[in-house]
Specification:
EC number: 2.6.1.9
Order of helices and strands: EHHEHEHEHEHEEEHHHEEHEEH
Organism: Shimia haliotis
Largest sheet: 7 strands, mixed
CATH architecture of the largest domain: 3-Layer(aba) Sandwich
CATH class of the largest domain: Alpha Beta
Pfam families: Aminotran_1_2 (PF00155)
Number of strands: 12
Structural class: alpha/beta
Number of helices: 11
Pathway: Amino-acid biosynthesis; L-histidine biosynthesis; L-histidine from 5-phospho-alpha-D-ribose 1-diphosphate: step 7/9
Low-confidence stretches: none
Strand content: 5-15%
Radius of gyration: 20 Å
Mean pLDDT: 97
GO molecular function: histidinol-phosphate transaminase activity; pyridoxal phosphate binding
Oligomer: single chain
Length: 339
Amino acid sequence: MSRPFAARLGANENIFGPSPKAIAAMEQAASDIWMYADPESHELRTALADFHGVTPQNIVVGEGIDGLLGYLVRLLIEQGDTVVTSDGAYPTFNYHVAGFGGVLHKVPYRDDAEDLPALLAKAAEVDAKLVYFANPDNPMGSWFTGEDIVAHLDMIPEGCVLLLDEAYIELAPEGAAAPVDINDPRVIRMRTFSKGYGMAGARIGYALGETGFIRAFEKIRNHFGLNRAAQAGALAALQDAGWLASTQANVAEARDTITGIAEKHGLKALPSATNFVAIDCGRDGAFAKAVLDGLVARGVFVRMPFVAPQNRCIRLSCGPADALALFDAALKDVLAELG
């Protein structure tokens, strides 16, 4: 579209925004932007270590989870190595695997959720070096308890690593975070300041894992890839627990509002542990795409899963009441037009 969207609800962004303290910290850092940032992210890694009860040596900071995914694949995958993911899961991971010559094996979703036992069974079958699993999941918003995940760790084949993408974990129910032993070299967890902390444009995230594994990133990461403002903003955001709590409440309220809108129009919102909701349009992917196109034409930006049968849904971000009201009105018009 040549004009701005009236409601931008399609990019899984946290529309409630970052902590005012994070904004102030980034504004203050701007005056020193002529200097390179700390290549070790010492202050931030120390604060993250305290937050998680680990050591700074268990943490590497990078340019969002996207950047860390690239580093991880570069570190582990060579030409012809096999990698397992879910069919329809986060596509950026797949691009990294293809770029480094890896061979992807995909496992279908089960009941609109990633299927961890099937992923690990496929990894054993194809001798995979890496398995991608997101909890909570994008694009469906589904989730497992952390205890469920830990219960399946013994299924990880020898020589394989489970990548646990926890981008949305701050917005998930209590107990969704997997209590993985930080010294377990079979698992690496990734988190971000893009979702719960509302800093998607700053591009900053981190990985947690066993010390030797995490320190191996020093061989291949871009040591000056993070800017000063992002580091300062992330540190301030981490320290503002009150703002995160208010965001969690706003997101929960918006999920309920979206569920009500869907039901009002004869559709079904799927349960979500994220800052977005998938809405089952009740037919096939072609109908969902028609709904999406109609919404976009009316200035409401949403997206949809790209693999059947999940592509029967549209997906929209949680947002303030005015944005969701625009979605409500546009959806009513679109559904009336499509019949």
